[in-house]
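Reviewer has doubts. Consider these tokens.
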Amino acid sequence: MSITRRLITCFALFFVFLRLSAHEGMWIPSLLARLNESDMVTMGLKLTAEDIYSINKSSIKDAIVQFGGGCTGEIISGEGLLLTNHHCGYGQIQSHSSLENDYLKNGFWAYDRSQELKNPGLTATFIVYIENVTNQVLDGTVGTPATKNQIIARNISRIIESATKNTKYEAVIKPFFYGNEYYMIVTKTYKDVRLVGAPPSSIGKFGGDTDNWAWPRHTGDFSLFRIYADAQNQPAEISDNNKPLSPAHSLPISIKGVKEGDFAMVYGFPGRTQQYLHSASLQYTLDYGNPAKIAMRTASLAVIDEAMKRSDQLRIQYAAKQSRIANAWKKWQGESRGLQLMNAVARKQDFEREFSQRALKADKSSYADGVKELGELIDDNTQLQLAYDYFVELIYFGPEMFRFANRFDKLLSQYGNLPQSDMNRMASDLLPAVQAFYKDFNAQVDREVARSLIKMFVKGIKSDYLGPQLTEYAAKTEVEQNQWIDKLYSRTEFTNAALITGILKSPNPTSLGRLKKDPMFVLMQEVFARFAFLSPDYNAFTKEVDQRMEVYLKGMMELFPEKKLWPDANGTIRLSYGKVEGSEPRDGLAYKHYTTLDGIMEKYIPSSDEFDVPIKLRDLYRTKDYGPYAVAGSVPVAFTASLHTTGGNSGSPIINADGHLVGLNFDRTWESTMSDLMFSPEMCRNIAMDTRYLLFIIDKYAGAQNIMAEIKVVR
């Protein structure tokens, strides 16, 4: 390609970025009538904005829940039946699994209410209403950033107290556009959420890590739960006296399906996007952040994957952990690839130049200076950011024993000054979590993870951030380093479940004093202390970045009035809309918008960890016993659409123009993972399970007619 053609392509993409495709954006539902309704109707929507979000009548919002704090679910019956992803319910399925009842391998179906399984700690949160409280939050804000933040915090506390007083509601106020606007989200949370059904992992995780973040997909990624409430239909603690929730709205499920070009929208709780980042932040992500995190998780997964192949016990113990580590690991790889394909850094730099030119033309040089200084700030703190990323990977996603030993910090640092009654109480409070930890812990696997990751950690960060022990470790030969890890794990008492449990059941100064000197605890005290030493500098850096980003976004709003900006995802409820459509992500490669059961059988590998197919599904395929779910001689399994999604949208409903459920969002294509940082309407596609496959599995595979009887199916 010539230089001229490259420039034309670059500027064409740049102006697409400025124009903001209708497919892009995660919109606040309460603002749809003002910002999006006409666009959505033009694209095919047959509903009104109030049908989607209303505080005066039942609307689709009343069927959408935040599931477990990290995923989305939707109500699909008048009896509180909740649909979400298999991978969102994976932790609960795993917690109920054992060698005797291997629900991960064999699936689980409750054929009556008495068989539904309780899940302590699992919640489902509904949105009551959303309110713009920007003026109230910013009222009286003057002075330094620190003073301004104190005033904002006081205002937020007062507003929330007023909104929730004498109600069963909770509320949170979050900044949007880096603090240029504030919205209050008022919620109601239910705490009795029970497992109703889940297909075996050979359906729910079909394709495993190989197919994760990829298309074509053939995954039946769903699970079913039920929300229970008290006699007044209000939130209540888990109790046998609770009744199934009577929801304000439930989604009918379409058996009509989708075709290319159909209008579609996704409604859920996207976690985090950063669409307005400075080019220097993208450069850091590509050159430092993603490579470091990918390498750390590659090393962990090599150990865990091999261990899971050795026994069913290890497979069950590490299934949820492996999935948690692997998901972001593959996502970051696709994200980096997509950003490189889109020439994202150069596009951001083009925009920053245009921003500065407009600022100078408008006689607002402070905006131009600010965007330049923001880039310099990010570049000057590369090593600080990298050290923080390495610490997070080691501590929170690395060897479990590190986090576990540190959980004893409060007890072991205070026991000497405590009366026996307080010592007993603190030890007793730890006991349930400790027992749960040992259920799914294997010391040998953890030792091998530590062996790999500590080596990478000490090589990856500046020596200034290492404590004395890891500095000494870094100076050793590889053989000596391995011996050091072996000695650490052989000497620690924290790997001894019976001993630690016994100490907590009958704590005394002698046994707790011994644990305080344990080599694992001493090392973790040092590691966490170094992380604590690093954190103030990192927090100060991120605060300054956010303050500068607030000004940058304010400048965008002023200098680009033609842009219809949307706020980055921040865990609050959002709606995205677009079309059901395939894609052409690379030269010579064109994807259809759908997959079928035929593709599952094409991928079938007997006894494979990722591509085995259960015999019942094979029999249904062989006899073509598809019921009413057949289309052109097969069963639709998944489809893609140009909807803007991210983490947290897992389990979100894909809703058609009539307000019917047609799909269950569970992934993005590999090239689309960059959409957290830059969305491309041409390249980015979300992946959803077709509701016809959902019904086929519940009906024909599981034979769960009790579940089918309460679902409203529409054609």
Summary: Residues 1-22 have pLDDT under 50 and may be disordered.
